[in-house]
Specification:
Blueprint (H helix, E strand, L loop, with lengths): L4 E6 L3 H11 L5 E5 L25 H4 L1 H10 L3 E4 L2 E5 L4 E6 L2 E12 L3 E3 L12 E3 H11 L6 E6 L1 H12 L4 E6 L3 H6 L4 H4 L3 H16 L4 E2 L3 E6 L6 E6 L2 E6 L3 E5 L1 E3 L2 H6 L3 E4 L4 E4 L12 E3 L8 H19 L5 H28 L4 H4 L7 E3 L4 E2 H9 L5 H8 L12 H12 L3 H4 L13 H5 L1 E4 L15 E3 L2 E2 L1
Parallel strand pairs: 1-2, 1-6, 2-3, 6-19, 6-22, 8-15, 9-10, 9-15, 10-11
Antiparallel strand pairs: 4-5, 5-6, 7-16, 12-13, 13-14, 17-18, 20-21, 22-24, 23-24
Length: about 475
């Protein structure tokens, strides 16, 4: 048996799980790596082992993920949790850390499903302790059942409304919703509304969330602008204007959210081509309709490709798996086309709905591109707009040059929290489009490593998916692992 996996999947969210289930049914060797302790990704985090007494309270869209996770758990793909991938080489080699050791494997096809991260929300004070993202609030809730009483939620988009509703169902008091969706967005998005009609059930879900929040009596401030978080060592209050009036709410817990963007660090480090998505205002990997990237044997799926949502991610995962199976010679062109057709049709309908959502909840300029020069842009290195502007005037015309002059983007997050903001700031200062400015140049390793990890190195080889036994030439120390 070959010492190379047929398919290596990085990420066990909806896309990665769907791809693994689809591919493993054909008997090819599949390995899945995920840095979390269990499958599900962010959307289905701990859906089969929730710390909540009644997880159904999180909603049907969460609970339905249980079926996919169970299918994934039962499929023949080899699974490595707590696996942090930090390098993908030109020869199909994948390096990752797990349990304090470095492991390697090789694969003929690699699928990257790293999902999304929340878009930066660089307003004055966003770096203070007590300020987190709405996604963080949901992570704490799903993973550990931890909540924050009397928090203020600030921002726009379906996720923030969902998290508030989940809090309310648990009896957790929410101090206020400061909604940054401008009134004009509701009017402008109507041009995309006809495309959303086929997904009317999703529209009703959104309206029901609004009704839950309204009926619970949560104060809602609409079309909020001029947001500023006050505090010296800790968030103490939030100021904003709405309807021409200024408001101030005392609070020590603030959750921000203005949508999500693809998680780029791994695809950037590999050197895949990327493009600026003018609809979603974010960078994303260049790929064809079947997820194949600018590198022939590397594919992308799910929100890693541009935000598609959980259902869309599952569909893209299946489409990519079919494409990879075709390139491996397991299925024919005709079979791929037949099996892909209904998926493409459903995905097209979802994408039309996505255009409506993207238009309605597009974050406004002042919340993406900070105007106050004291606003921190790089939270790791605590670099402000004023410091970046000075670096620009000194010759930092591009993201990498600016990084060298200011250290912006050199922290542990490797630019995740400032990359998009820096690109848009430079575009404004240069008077050019973001696509001309570009993004940080990233390299492996994609995480901090220590010498102990390098000192304990092992190679992972596939087991025989049909018999459960390794090939005769291998001497495994654990399932699928060779020292």
């Amino acid at each position: 048996m070959s010492s190379t996996f047929d398919i290596a999947i990085i990420g066990a969210g909806p896309a990665g799980m769907a791809a693994a289930v689809t591919a493993s049914k054909t008997g090819v060797s599949v390995v899945v790596l995920d840095e979390k302790s269990s499958a599900g990704g962010q959307i289905y985090r701990k859906v089969t082992s929730s710390p909540l007494e009644n997880p159904e309270i999180l909603g049907p869209d969460y609970i339905k993920g249980k079926a996919l996770v169970e299918q994934f758990d039962d499929c023949s793909a080899e699974k490595y949790y707590g696996a942090s991938v930090w390098h993908v080489g030109d020869n199909g080699e994948v390096l990752f850390s797990r349990d304090g050791q470095t492991h390697s494997l090789t694969a003929k096809e690699v699928l990257i499903c790293c999902g999304a991260m929340e878009r930066p929300f660089p307003v004055p004070g966003w770096h203070l302790p007590g300020v987190m993202s709405a996604g963080s609030a949901q992570v704490m809730l799903k993973a550990d059942g931890i909540v924050r009483e009397n928090a203020v939620f600030v921002g726009t988009g379906p996720l923030i409304y969902l998290v508030i509703a989940q809090y309310l169902r648990l009896g957790i008091k929410v101090k206020a919703l400061v909604d940054t969706t401008p009134n004009s967005a509701y009017i402008e998005s109507m041009t995309k509304f006809p495309g959303a009609i086929p997904q009317s059930s999703m529209l009703f879900k959104g309206l029901s969330l609004f009704n839950e929040i309204r009926k619970a009596g949560v104060p809602v401030f609409r079309s909020a602008r001029d947001i500023k978080i006050e505090g010296a060592e800790q968030a103490e209050a939030i100021e904003f204007t709405t309807g021409g009036k200024q408001h101030r709410l005392d609070t020590d817990h603030i959750f921000l959210h203005q949508g999500v963007v693809p998680h780029l660090n791994l695809t950037r480090a590999i050197g895949l081509d990327h493009e600026w998505d003018k609809q979603q205002l974010c960078w994303r990997p260049v790929h064809n309709d079947y997820g194949q990237s600018s590198v022939e044997w590397i594919s992308v799926a799910g929100d890693n490709t541009g935000i598609v949502g959980a259902d869309g991610a599952e569909m893209t995962g299946k489409l990519v798996a079919l494409s990879q199976l075709n390139r491996l010679g397991v299925i024919t062109n005709a079979e791929q086309a037949v099996r892909s057709e209904p998926l493409n049709r459903q995905l097209h309908s979802l994408n039309r709905f996505r255009k409506f959502i993207d238009s309605m909840y597009q974050p406004i300029v002042e919340h993406r591109i900070p105007q106050d020069e004291t606003t921190v842009v790089c939270r790791c290195e605590e670099r402000t707009v004023a410091e970046l502007k000075k670096g620009f005037e000194q010759g930092g015309q591009g993201p990498n040059e600016l990084k060298g002059l200011t250290r912006c983007g050199m922290g542990p997050c490797q630019g995740r929290q400032c990359g998009h903001t820096v690109s848009e700031l430079l575009a404004g200062w240069r008077g050019e489009g973001v696509e001309q400015v570009g993004y940080y140049r990233l390299r492996s390793p994609m995480r901090l490593l220590n010498l102990q990890e390098f000192g304990q190195f092992s190679e992972i080889k596939p087991i025989n998916a049909m018999t459960g036994e390794p090939s005769a030439s291998e001497e495994p120390s654990a399932k699928g692992e060779v020292v």
